[in-house]
Amino acid sequence: MTPEAIRKSYLEELVTVAPDLDPQTVGDNDHIQTDLELDTTNVLDLVTALQDRLGVIIPEVDYPAIATPALAVAYLAQAIGRKGG
After folding, report:
1. pLDDT tens per residue across span 20-38
2. Taking Cα atoms as reference points, which of 28, 2, 81, 84 lies closest to residue 14?
């Protein structure tokens, strides 16, 4: 899966859990809680959605690694690589 495809998947799931967000305005370094104002429940919903969509496991200790689109793309690319996808 390409970084662009991972970013697209991330943004699609982000907008699913936070429908007021416009994916066109989300910057690579926008923090999902600080900048985009997701609450804890939204973050958990995003984690679950990404796990289901991408077939990866995101342990709670790694949640900071998906806190921005840029961080998430790097983290998820590695996670997908570990699972052989």
Report:
1. 999 999 999 999 999 999 9
2. 28
